[in-house]
Amino acid sequence: MTITVEPMHNGFKHLMVSGAIALLAIGGNVTSGQSNVTGQAWAGATRIAGKRMNCRAARVVKSKTSPGVGYALSGVIVLDPRKLRRYPSVVRRLIFLHECAHQYVGRDEAGADCWAVRIAKRQGWLPKRGVRQVCKSFLGSSGSQYHLPGPARCRAMIQCFDAAPTRKRKARRKARRKK
Which domain does 159 fall in, by range? Predict the structure, then answer.
């Protein structure tokens, strides 16, 4: 199964100094040696918790020295596979979509959370219990200059999930069963 996110626009111009390694790495496929960059998936494709994920608006770079689990630059998603492994599968996939979302919503962290939850629900792999699992992973967070505190972030994500349309194919199947 491939989970793909189509680009709508690429107005994201956020650049971070800590992303310099990632920007240099996108010129070539760095897979071994002494580099901190461990791999790259072209065209925004990577495997997250056994599922192929794709963010067509950005290339994916895996780095051992990412300051967090992941972050986004214009046209690039940087992920730290070792830090990602600490989280359940659904959380890892949502982290990827959150970073992909920055290609569409810019620096807006709450907007990126909402965008990711809506896309995951529409694609059919994020049930309500999955959102609760995501919330559990950062509920104790006091927040940062970028992210809301855990409880507020969780409430906002649940609101986005509840407001998002359900998977289209699933709705069509239910309609056919009723006939």
Answer: 2-169
